[in-house]
Amino acid sequence: MSGTRPVDTDDRRGSGRRPCATDVTVVFDDGPLVGPSENLSREGVFFVARASLRVRVKVGDDEWIEGEVVRVQSMGDGNVGLAVKFV
pTM, whole model, 2 decimals? Predict the structure, then answer.
C-alpha cells in the first residue's frame, strides 16, 4: 500500500494540546457498569460496558466540566491514565 501511513494520534485530534501540570479531580457519576465479558483469566477479566462512563472534571480551581471517559491506559507502577472528552 504505497502512499498510506498509519493514523497518528495527533492526526485524529480535533484541537491542539498544550502541557498542563495542574491537579485534576474526576468524579464518576455512573453507578455500576454491567456488560458481557470478552475473556477471563486468573489475573483479570475484559468486558464491554453498554454505556458511556460519564464523569465530572475539575482542572485546578476551575469550574466543574461534564465529560465522558474515552480511554483508560495502564501507565505502570500502579498508575492509570484517563482520557476524558468534554461534553
Answer: 0.72
What is the C-alpha to C-alpha distance for residues 71 and 62, in angstroms, rounded to an integer?
23
Going by C-alpha positions, the residue among 33, 39, 66, 38 that lies closest to residue 52 is 33
In contact, 83 and 69? CB cutoff 8 Å = yes
Burial of 6 (0-12, 13-18, 19+ CB in 10 A): exposed
Domain ranges in the chain? 20-86
Residue 2 has pLDDT above 50, yes or no: no
Radius of gyration of the chain, Cα coordinates, nearest whole angstrom? 17
Q: What is the DSSP string of 21-62?
A: ---EEEEE--------EEEE-SS-EEE--SS--EEEEEETTS
Terminal CA-CA length for the chain: 37
Cβ-count burial 26-36 (b if 16+ within 10 Å, e if not):
eeeeeeeeeee
